[in-house]
């Protein structure tokens, strides 16, 4: 684990990529890939400053939705050397970056979060902290989504995501009660979405009640999900003053909430329940929803009760 903040000088803006040659008039013009309007960087192991070997890396750019929760705007997989780029992004806006990884030996890394990045930024090396003691694997959150209406069971599609809350206060990341949220200097806390890691099954069809928990209602359909996530708290940094100072992750289990969005079966964008999303913050025994590296926890069911 890191023992203090690590400062990485911010590189100059990426060079402007020339326009692609014009296509024949019968075809639409090619999209300009202007890296000066994008965000780039490299994911490295904090202990070695080398690329993370094997396994799977995911880098997501997020922005708050109408509820204030960061949701994924776009995401990518870095190359073998850990480099990634998002070449074209909307200007006059900012993004939060969330990076997660597990290496080829199954060692999980804490999430790293950078808040408030403008397009046109090269973030340089971004350190991810590996689990180093005791269990080192990813954690799992399991659970069920149910759907019903006033007249009986409903069929919906649900996308499920793990949410953490991060807190930045005087350069120290502080765990917040579920969901995990980031507290920015002079601003409110911010829940962030943690991208699903290998083994995640988060896009589910809720269209029958077979295989549901023993306490299921005969008037509701249900479906199970699995979220594979880091079992430790994240390292968090603010993008400010040309430098990025990464905080040391807080000790102890990682607190999560689980959020599900409802849609018409086979569609994304058409809500089928009121409200269109639901969240839970407790496990099946009613305790705060927390996980540790290599552990598994079952969340309370996520119940949509006003669907059609």
Brief write-up:
The protein is mainly beta and 308 residues long. 0% of the residues lie in helices and 44% in strands. The protein has one domain.
Please count the helical segments.
0
- Regions with little confidence, pLDDT below 50 for 5+ residues: 1-35, 170-180
First CA to last CA: what distance?
Answer: 49 Å
Q: Please give the number of β-strands.
A: 25
Strand percent estimate: 35-45%
Strands ordered across the widest β-sheet: 1-19-18-7-6-3-4
Largest sheet properties: 7 strands, mixed
Mean pLDDT: 83
- Rg is 20 Å
Q: Which descriptor suits the 3D outline?
A: globular
Folded structure, characterized:
The protein is an all-beta fold. The chain has one domain (6-304). 0% of the residues lie in helices and 44% in strands. It is built from no helices and 25 strands. The chain has strands at 6-9, 39-45, 56-64, 70-76, 83-86, 95-102, 112-117, 121-128, 139-149, 152-153, 156-166, 168-169, 172-173, 181-183, 189-194, 203-206, 221-229, 235-240, 243-246, 254-255, 257-263, 277-280, 290-291, 296-298, 302-304. The strands form 6 sheets. The protein has a 7-stranded mixed sheet, with no helix packed on it. Strands 11, 14, 15, 16, 21 and 22 form a 6-stranded antiparallel sheet that branches. A hairpin with a 5-residue loop joins strand 14 (181-183) and strand 15 (189-194). The protein starts with 5 loop residues before the first strand and ends with a strand.
